[in-house]
Amino acid sequence: MGRGSGFGKVILFGEHFVVHGVPGIVSAIDSTVDAEVKKTGKGIIVRDERKGARGYTEKKRVQQKESIERMLRTMGIDLEEAVLDIWLGGNLPGFSGIGASAASSVAIARAIAEELEMDLSDEKINEVAYEAEKAYAGTPSGIDNTAATYGGLIWFERNLSGGPNTIKKLSMREPVEIVMGNTGIVADTKEMVAGVAARKKRDPRKYDPLFKQAEDLAFSARRALEDFDLGKVGGLMNENHRLLQDIEVSCEELDYLVDLAQEQGAFGAKLTGGGGGGCMVALTPGKELQEAVAAAMEKEGFKVLRTKIGVQKYKG
Ligand code: PMV
User: Fold this and answer.
1) Best residue among 143, 211, 243 to mutate for probing ligand 1, ranked by most atoms within 8 Å of CB
2) pLDDT digits (tens, 9 = 90+) for 4-13
3) Atom of ligand 1 at shortest distance to CA of 192?
4) How far apart are the first and last CA of the chain?
5) What are the pocket residues of ligand 1 if the criterion is a CB atom closer than 6 Å to any ligand atom?
6) Residue-wise pLDDT tens digits, 152-181
7) Which CATH code of 3.90.550.10, 3.10.290.10, 3.30.70.890, 1.10.8.100 fits the domain covering 176-309?
8) Which of 45, 89, 124, 281 is most buried by a 10 A CB count?
9) Residue 248: CB atoms within 10 Å
10) What is the pTM of this model?
């Protein structure tokens, strides 16, 4: 049997903008999707036993099938001949915006490689997972699969001319607590990404300055994270959320959770990932603040994940 894992992630700065070449900052979180693969049975069977938001697995099933086919093709495996029983589990919940699709692609690619005795580097696994991400995100930036593969805290810049992306490992003095609040809405990342691209094209006078602000914000955020100035990081997260509202990827439930986190004393809060539902993230240094923010969301009926940013690199 082959086994593999991929990290869940939280985009701290720059989702959507990153698709268009603006730098983004992403942190792996301390939860993974785990996969086990056996060469047995008939054709390709997927047993997805992840704890999901209601409807997550059903809604993503078609995209998941396409993503596995893309993955196998990139690994040079014959789709007609392949006999693979794929099991998915782990402690990363199936929420939108948490990198569940990229983490599962990385986990599956690693498990297949182990089962079929293919010696694949992390770089190759990342490339395979990027191909798989196209099924979920249409034109993905590559930020999700990079975080799922390498872990840690990463500065990511997509190379729009097709060359290698810029991936820099950032470091924080110590891990910091966050709360990820789930709206419960399963969003379609592909539609969200396509919507931003269409509006940007239609209305450059509005969108170009917003993209410039997102770029400046990423550089300030990088400095603040490296200086461990958490007050500043939080303020920049709030600003990032306003930019995401401006490009129309937030929604009522996300704004509600962001406001709630701020009222409870979070240092900052923003939507994270594709938006239109899915998750938000609140910066809540210390167990006590994390608990206060998480409990306030749970009291309102939302599912939450208490986790940390700045955790160690995956040692797979
Ligand atoms: O919703 P998620 O976790 O798949 O994150 C998507 C992030 C985007 O920036 C919207 C798309 C991308 O590929 O970077």
Assistant:
1) 143
2) 999 999 999 9
3) 10
4) 16
5) 11, 15-16, 18-19, 96-97, 99, 101, 137, 140-141, 143-144, 189, 193, 273-274, 278
6) 999 999 999 989 999 999 999 999 999 999
7) 3.30.70.890
8) 281
9) 14
10) 0.93
